[in-house]
Amino acid sequence: MAEQVSNQLSEELVSFLQGEQIVLLASIDAENGSPNLLCISWLLATDPTTLRLAIDGRSKLLQNIAKDDRVTVTVLGLGTATAVTGRANKYVDKLEDVALNMAGVEIKVEAVRDVMFYGGKLTQELAYEKTYDKALAEKYDAEIFAALRR
Predict the structure, then answer these.
(1) 68, 31 in Cβ contact below 8 A?
(2) Is the confidence at residue 30, as pLDDT, over 50?
(3) Torsion angle of alpha carbons 25, 112, 7, 67, nearest 10°?
(4) Residue 47 and residue 16: Cα distance in Å, rounded?
(5) Is the pLDDT of residue 1 over 80?
(6) What pLDDT shows up at residue 3?
(7) What's the half-sphere exposure (Cβ side, CA atoms, 13 Å) at 136?
(8) Per-domain residue ranges for the chain?
């Protein structure tokens, strides 16, 4: 069983979660109560107790958190797997100065746990490649992370 490490993010984790990290976001499906999992990269830690993310304004996640605000963000990095549980809410319908229709979601951290299996250590950071226009990807990233930091 994973041991509770803290009720807030470490300074190292806040620094790590400043954008472009792949995380898994689990919510509870509003229709059938099953787990719903998303892989996202537009997420950042604004401080040790708050995560913010950008999500498509039509995303099922918004329906899920409107019904049940409990979520878990799994971070694979810094040599381990970390589960960050908390309460999510949509704080804005459309992020300002962002070309895409992206809602802003804020997660208030309740618990941070190391969930890496005993004796295991991640030895590489996750890497990914955006498969659409590079200049457009950079534009969207800049707009979204600026909006999340406001």
Answers:
(1) no
(2) yes
(3) 20
(4) 12
(5) no
(6) 62
(7) 6
(8) 4-149
In 3D space, the residue among 13, 12, 10, 41 whose CA is nearest the CA of residue 25 turns out to be: 41
By the 8 A CB rule, do 37 and 26 touch?
A: yes
At 95, give phi and psi (nearest 5°): -65, 135
Taking 3-state DSSP, the helix, strand and coil percentages for the chain, each rounded to the nearest 5, stand at: 20, 40, 40
Is residue 67 within 8 Å of 11, Cβ to Cβ? no
Other CB atoms within 10 Å distance of the CB of residue 17 = 23
* 20 Cβ contact partners less than 8 Å away, ≥ 6 residues apart: 41, 141
Torsion of CA 11, 40, 99, 16, to 10 degrees: 20
Query: Does 2.30.110.10 match the CATH number of domain 4-149?
Result: yes
The tokens describing 76, both together, are 């694979």
How do residues 56-99 score in pLDDT, each as one tens digit?
999 999 999 999 999 999 999 999 999 999 999 999 999 999 99
Decide if 52 contacts 65 (C-beta within 8 A): no
Q: Mean pLDDT for the chain?
A: 95
